[in-house]
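Example record

The entry below shows one chain as it appears in the dataset: sequence first, then structure tokens.
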Amino acid sequence: MNIRDRQILQIALPSIVSNITVPLLGMIDVAIVGHMGSPVYIGAVAVGSMIFNLVYWLFGFLRMGSSGLTAQALGRRDLTEVTRILARSVSVALGIALLLIVLQMPLKWLMFWLIGPTADVAPFASTYFNIVIWGAPASLALFSLMGWYIGMQNTRIPMFISIMQNIVNILASLTLVYGFGMKIEGVALGTVIAQYVGLLVALGLLARYYGRLRVHKRTGTLCSGETHNASPLVHFFAINRDIFLRTLCLVAVNLFFTSAGARQGAVILSVNTVLMQLYLFFSYFMDGFAYAGEALGGKAYGAHNKIAFRETLNRLWMWMVIVTAAYTLLYLIGGRWIVGLLTDEAQVIETSGDYLFWVWIIPVAGCVAFIWDGIFIGMTATRGMLVSSFLSALVFFAVYYFSLFTLHFSLHNHGLWLAQVIYLAMRGIIQTIWYRLRLINSI
């Protein structure tokens, strides 16, 4: 294994562990409320978790924008700019969080209108929302810090924080629910406690391992005029605007995929939900290598080191092929067994067999976009990400409605999966073309 592979794995493997722990926060809450004696508690946590997952996903640009800019500044050995990037990102994160808290009532109304919880679930979901919204400053600031750590080539700290947050969430929620007799309030408060503990630990580790950057504090503080002068902020917001709009495209496709499945009945909705979990398992691993692309590709790009950049890209393609082949083989051989682990509903298991072959195709269709996402973020070439996501979303809807109105008699839910697979493939194809036409000579 050469040095570039070791660098990639040193970043990718901790990121993979972090990704796997992300859904655990919601699963822990569901597991606790699942023993409270009423299904309305499960529904309330499901609705509340969905709201915050969606809202925070939209602000994921705080992480992605920070990592690429930081990696480039590190590659240039511009440590003053490294501190400024962190200051800008955290400032923006706290500003957005304050806005979310101020506008929490209209935000809650809008999300409840979109999701439509039943009358028995809505009051408890409202209670959950009213508490967890106060964790927004910690969650969004952590996005900025996590992105900054990745840009600094350090994914071990984000991994440690993710694991620690889950442990704190378990202990705090169990203590509040079973020790103090709280119900949905205890679960929500446990989540908020875990978020703020995660932030405090992230800041503590920042001081512990990056305290040497204090020598650049005078030109990199939150109050510095240089930190907030027009040119860097314009660039910062331009990058994050593109990522935000790109995320809207992803959200639109994912929400439509869910709603289109729901219109075909509970069984199809369940089948699609279960099968999409297999794609998520694949994405957890590929995202780790995307993070490696952000960190290593961004650093090489910032240093104008064409050899290191090309070598990083070539090794990422190699790892992409290995992971994609492994997951495709796993799903070919054990797809039905994995579905059986995720659900014991006989009708869902039986029906999923008709659509399982789409899961075999998805890793191959989606793998290229993961690598390009990491490289584009590292290069801060976010306009290419936006264009590819927007055009691919248009293709998704065009394919779906073509199959619905032209081939409806034969495709049904297969048309939805066909649109999803083509959408994933198109993202990678368009980004490849964008790179070759616009970026390949910019290193």
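Notes for this example: The longest helix spans residues 266-302. The radius of gyration is 22 Å.
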